[in-house]
Amino acid sequence: MDDALVRMPKLADTLVEGTVGQWLKQVGQTIDKGEPLASIETDKVTTELTSPFSGTLLEVLVAEGQTVPIDTPIARIGAARTAAAGAPAPKPTPVAARLLKDHGLAADQIPSDSGRLTKDEVLAFIQRGPPHEITLRTHGELTPLSPMRRAIADHMVKARQTIPHGQTVMAADLTRLVAWRDEHKSAFQDREGANLTFTVFFVYALAQQLASQRPVDLGVAVALEHGLIVPVLRHADSLTLAETARGIADLAERARGGRLTPDQTQGASMTVTNVGSFGNLTASPIIPVGQVGILGPGLVERRPMPAGDHGIRLGWRCLLSLMFDRRAFTDLAADRLLRGVVTQLVGIAEAA
């Protein structure tokens, strides 16, 4: 067989790099297609990388513990032969060598597909910049961005540049739903082993409304210490309220434990991010690249509400913000979708 390169995989929609945790095969060993080759680590996911080819591991191009951009060659597999223990440093072109000298870089710091480092590869590496050059202002101080925060920032910039955002906001009277939840949440948790959170209601309602329009794999934003991760609830439109709760609880536990697999973080058609869990009344979240919308429910708050006799009563209200891709929805279609979500939420308690 001809030599084939194994590349750093993209383990989540917002990731731009990964770290080789451990090589599970040694140079010179044979490997079958689909057999574990290495463990790959990110801030979001740790998983085994299986070999896309059968053959002999000829070269390890990225050392254990080294972090490289996605799609970077990390190993070479081919027919058995005398194999080097590691990858030689690539030879740079004259212009690339001058750039390396000007920026204090070494050739072996920069991956090269051809083995001859080019000007474009060096410039691309310089433009990405090392992690410590990208900072975030926190409590008045500039601090380095984590790989997760940097990946999120890059993803959000791309989303803003490529997706024509639209927004619609509606108020939902959740007074009956809150009363029903207060009455049943303890028994629900004992029976189902999952919390009956407001996020469960929002995901369930959106899935039901999308059921007739598109495949319903919904992203559910989970807050981690250094940012958000969005695992995907598959076939959400086919799930009962209890199944939705259990599915969200399982994904959140996996996310916080760093045990999500790559297929659990990609492929959502829309996302739900419960901004109200942080006390926000409403927000304008950015649509993830590759998705057609994102629902941002605000705080479920107790407040004066209109009464049927033109008076005032105390009730529970939530503002729901739907950001939508104008290429996928007209304004009217987005309004109808959000109105359907509001109606679905109101009807959960009545149908129970």
How would you describe this structure in keywords?
352 residues; alpha+beta; OB fold (Dihydrolipoamide Acetyltransferase, E2P); Chloramphenicol Acetyltransferase; four-stranded antiparallel β-sheet; 29% helix
Q: How many domains, in number, for the residues?
A: 3
What is the name of the CATH topology of the largest domain?
A: Chloramphenicol Acetyltransferase
Question: What's the shape?
Answer: elongated
Number of strands: 21
> Major beta sheet, specifics?
7 strands, mixed
The quaternary structure here is single chain
Q: Write the CATH architecture name of the largest domain.
A: 2-Layer Sandwich
In whole angstroms, how far apart are the ends? 62 Å
The helix count comes to 7
What's the CATH class of the largest domain, please? Alpha Beta
Order of helices and strands: EEEEEEEEEHEHEEHEHHEEEEHEEEEH
Please compute the radius of gyration using only Cα atoms.
25 Å
CATH homologous superfamily label of the largest domain: Chloramphenicol acetyltransferase-like domain
* Average pLDDT taken over every residue: 86
User: Beta-sheet strand percentage?
Assistant: 25-35%
- Uncertain regions: pLDDT < 50 for 5+ in a row? 82-87
Helix content: 25-40%
Structural class: alpha+beta
Overview in brief:
The chain is α+β, with helices and mostly antiparallel strands and 352 residues long. 29% of the residues lie in helices and 28% in strands. The chain is built from seven helices and 21 strands.
